[in-house]
From TrEMBL:
GO MF annotations, alphabetized: DNA-binding transcription factor activity; sequence-specific DNA binding
Alphabetically ordered keywords of this record: DNA-binding, Transcription, Transcription regulation
Species assigned in the record: Nitratireductor arenosus
Keyword Cell division tagged: no
A Pfam family: HTH_18
Regions annotated as coiled coil: none
InterPro entries, sorted: AraC_XylS_family_regulators, HTH_AraC
UniProt-recorded name of the protein: Helix-turn-helix domain-containing protein
Record bears the keyword Transport: no
Domain HTH araC/xylS-type: residue ranges: 178-280
Length: 281
C-alpha cells in the first residue's frame, strides 16, 4: 500500500486512503513543460474496481502508460469486454468517456494541452481525435520503450525522472505551435467558449473552412466543438463550487441561449442532464 508513495520528490503530492481506494502520486509539472503538459500522475489501484467511472469532455489529451491490468474504456457508451487498454492515448472528444477496471490497474498518466499533444506526438491530431488508440498502434518506438522502462522500474521518483527526460527531449526538438491556431485557441479559452468562430476567422484573414481544417490538424476537432467543450467545462466548474447549483443562472452566465440549451449540452458531454450528474469529488 505504501509503494505508491515510495521515495517521492519533496513537492510530489501523494493521495490515498485505507479503504482500498487507489493511490495517486501527483508529480509537479515544471515551468519548462507547463505550456505543453497539464499534469503528470502516478496511479495504482488497491483492489477497488472502477465501475462506469465517467469523464466529461476533458480539455486535455492523455497518454496512459500502463504496467498493471488493463482498463475497459469506451467513448460515449458503456465499455464492452473487447474495449481493453493498458497503454493508450485518445485525442479530444466532445462527449463523455466511461471506464471500468479490475481493481489492479497501475499506470502513469501524462495529460497534454491540445497543442502540446500535437508537439509531443508529432502527428496530425485528427488521427487520434475522438478515438481510443493503443500506443503500439502509434508506430512510435520511443513511447513503447518508455512504457517498457517504466514497467521495469518500481521506484516512483525514477519513473517520473524517465517521463520528464522523454518529455523534455521530444518537446525541445518539436516544431513550434501553429501560430494562427494557437492564437485562436487562446481566444476561445479567454472568452470561455463564447467567441464567435466567424470573428476569429476574420481576425486571422482566413475563411471559416480554412480555420476548421487547421484546427483538425493541430487540435483534432474544429473550433466550434472546441468552444462548446470550453463553455461546458466552465458550466461544470461553476456547478462544482455551488451549493445547490442554479442551472438557469449558470446557463445565463456561460452564454447558453437558455436552460434548455444547457441541458442539451450536458446530455451530449456527460451522458446525463445536470440534475443527474454524479457527485463531484
Amino acid at each position: 500500500m505504501h509503494d505508491m508513495a515510495q521515495d517521492p520528490t519533496p513537492s510530489t503530492t501523494v493521495a490515498g486512503c485505507l479503504d482500498g481506494a487507489p493511490f495517486l502520486v501527483r508529480h509537479p509539472v515544471h515551468a519548462d513543460l507547463c505550456d505543453d503538459v497539464v499534469r503528470i500522475l502516478g496511479y495504482r489501484e488497491n483492489g477497488v474496481a472502477l465501475d462506469n467511472a465517467v469523464e466529461m469532455a476533458p480539455l486535455a489529451v492523455p497518454l496512459i502508460l500502463g504496467f498493471g491490468e488493463p482498463f475497459q474504456i469506451a467513448l460515449g457508451r458503456a465499455p464492452a469486454s473487447e474495449d481493453r487498454y493498458d497503454s493508450f492515448t485518445s485525442g479530444l472528444y466532445p462527449g463523455f468517456v466511461l471506464m471500468n477496471s479490475t481493481g489492479r490497474a497501475e499506470c502513469i498518466q501524462i495529460d497534454f494541452t491540445p497543442l502540446g499533444a500535437r508537439r509531443f506526438f508529432g502527428i496530425p491530431m485528427r488521427e487520434i481525435a475522438q478515438r481510443m488508440v493503443h500506443t503500439v498502434d502509434l508506430g512510435d518506438r520511443d513511447i513503447v520503450r518508455l512504457r517498457d522502462r517504466l514497467g521495469a522500474e518500481t521506484d516512483w521518483r525514477r519513473r517520473f525522472g524517465l517521463v520528464e527526460a522523454v518529455l523534455r527531449r521530444r518537446l525541445e526538438r518539436a516544431r513550434p505551435q501553429h501560430g494562427a491556431v494557437a492564437w485562436a485557441y487562446e481566444r476561445i479559452l479567454a472568452s470561455q467558449g463564447t467567441v464567435r468562430i466567424g470573428a476569429l476567422a476574420r481576425s486571422l484573414d482566413c475563411s471559416r473552412k480554412h480555420l476548421n481544417q487547421r484546427f483538425h490538424e493541430e487540435i483534432g476537432i474544429g473550433p466550434k466543438s472546441t468552444a462548446r467543450m470550453v463553455r461546458f467545462n466552465r458550466a461544470l466548474t461553476m456547478a462544482r463550487f455551488a451549493e445547490g447549483p442554479d442551472w438557469a443562472l449558470i446557463a445565463a452566465d456561460c452564454g447558453y441561449a437558455d436552460q434548455a440549451h444547457l441541458v442539451r449540452e450536458f446530455r451530449a458531454f456527460s451522458g446525463a442532464p445536470p440534475s443527474a450528474l454524479p457527485p463531484f469529488p
